Amino acid sequence: MIKLGDKLPAGKLQEYVEVEGGGCSIGPNTFDVEKEAAGKKIAIFALPGAYTPTCSAKHVPGFVQHADALKAAGVDEIWCVSVNDAYVMGAWGRDQHTAGKVRMMADGSAEWTRALGLTQDLSAKGMGVRSQRYSMLVDNGVVKTLNIEAPGKFEASNAETMLAQARG
User: Fold this and answer.
1) Could you give the residue ranges of the DSSP H alpha helices within the chain?
2) What is the pLDDT of residues 38-63, one digit of tens each?
3) For the domain 12-167, what is the CATH code?
4) What does the alpha-carbon distance between residue 148 and residue 136 come to, in Å, rounded to a whole number?
5) For residue 139, what are the CA distances in angstroms to 20, 41, 60, 157?
6) What is the pTM of this model?
7) What contacts 151, CB < 8 A, 6 or more positions away?
8) How far apart are CA 53 and CA 132, in angstroms?
């Protein structure tokens, strides 16, 4: 499992881009995590699934609400990572009003989440392999803080905790 001081594992995430530009076509674009993290401070939070109750009512809205404060604290980007496809993450991002605040990054086959060592098996609930709920502050690809939730909890990975950590 990833820990403080580790570099993010190699991998790719997808993001549904609605406006063509900056080298991105409309639709899902694949991004290399190492390249995207280089030279940036990124607040990454992950959750079990798009449109699920806690994720939609608390986790994403908290990061949207605190996006400006996080950026004022030195965070260059905020990523929401979930084991969903890029189309679902794009639609969920529209519903959650994340544009310009939170990048909705899809890990459709859970490959990057597996590389982090942060999967959970929710097959008994009909959801298959998903991500654990966590947040981390990453500086130039290196994990500076890591907040992993206990199953069913939402106490440590919220935007307020990340903001306090970013302010240092």
Assistant:
1) 33-37, 53-54, 60-65, 67-72, 86-96, 111-116, 159-167
2) 999 999 999 999 999 999 999 999 99
3) 3.40.30.10
4) 9
5) 28, 4, 21, 17
6) 0.95
7) 120, 132
8) 15
What is residue 55's predicted lDDT score, i.e. its pLDDT?
Answer: 94
Would you call 55 a catalytic residue per the annotation? Answer: yes
Q: List the structure tokens of 11.
A: 């991998």
Find the catalytic residue in 42, 43, 50, 55: 55
Are 98 and 60 a contacting pair, CB within 8 Å? yes
Count of alpha carbons within 13 angstroms of residue 158, beta-carbon side? 13
The helix/strand/coil state of 134 is: strand
Long-range CB pairs of 117-121 (<8 Å, 24+ gap) are 117/1, 117/2, 118/1, 118/2, 118/46, 118/148, 119/83, 120/48, 120/151
Asked if residue 65 lies in contact with residue 162, where contact means CB atoms within 8 angstroms, the answer is no
Q: Is 168 exposed, middle or buried (0-12, 13-18, 19+ CB in 10 A)?
A: exposed
Q: How far apart are CA 91 and CA 116, in angstroms?
A: 25
Environment class of residue 31 by beta-carbon count within 10 Å: exposed (0-12), middle (13-18) or buried (19+)?
middle
Quote the CA–CA distance of 68 and 19 in Å, as a whole number.
22
Q: How is the chain split into domains, by residue range?
A: 12-167
